[in-house]
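$ ./design --mode recover --in tokens.txt
reading tokens...
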């Protein structure tokens, strides 16, 4: 495959995977709403960086990545479910402490850099992401290192563009929300993440 074709394939794969509404997307929207568009974009770039890294690994390994993950689908789902459950329960416990102490729902704590690293870590511990890119890469015949680099670059660019647009929209919308709505969004988002984790654990 030529580098140009690989780049286009990466753009398509990146936007298709990034646009899937999942646990990370919900957490990203909540962060952008509560902390504002600047922090939200930084968090989104953390997700995009992880997508770029996973795409590079999957494309470089080719069919070997898919073969290594083949037969471990149940284990991947369990690991993802545990990681997502821990994130959701931590967030719910934080909201409960705020409510018990009668604290207003404040913006998500931390700098833009801290949220970048947080979402880089959250996405990196989700094995479903690399499984998705491994499946795409295994179906393609990328060939040489230039095609591999072009595919990964396409994925990274598409993921960055989508998550930038998503967090900017959510961040600006959050400026019009009351603290009560923000609290409800935070709690509701964590409950949905728990539901996603339960579905994964049950093999859904």
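writing sequence...
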């Amino acid at each position: 495959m030529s580098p140009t074709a690989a780049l286009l394939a990466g753009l398509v794969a990146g936007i298709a995977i990034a646009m899937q509404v999942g646990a990370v997307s919900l957490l990203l929207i909540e962060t952008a709403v509560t902390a504002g568009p600047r922090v939200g974009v930084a968090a989104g770039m953390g997700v995009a960086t992880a997508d770029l890294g996973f795409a590079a690994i999957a494309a470089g390994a080719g069919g070997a990545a898919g073969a290594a993950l083949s037969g471990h689908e149940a284990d991947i789902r369990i690991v993802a479910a545990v990681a997502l459950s821990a994130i959701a329960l931590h967030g719910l416990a934080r909201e409960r402490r705020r409510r018990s102490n009668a604290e207003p729902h404040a913006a998500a704590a931390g700098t833009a850099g801290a949220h970048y690293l947080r979402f880089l870590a959250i996405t990196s511990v989700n094995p479903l992401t690399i499984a998705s890119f491994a499946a795409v890469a295994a179906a393609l015949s990328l060939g040489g290192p230039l095609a591999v680099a072009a595919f990964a670059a396409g994925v990274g660019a598409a993921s960055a563009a989508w998550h930038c647009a998503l967090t900017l929209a959510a961040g600006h919308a959050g400026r019009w929300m009351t603290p009560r709505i923000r609290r409800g969004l935070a709690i509701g988002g964590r409950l949905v993440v728990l539901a996603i984790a339960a579905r994964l654990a049950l093999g859904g």
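exit 0
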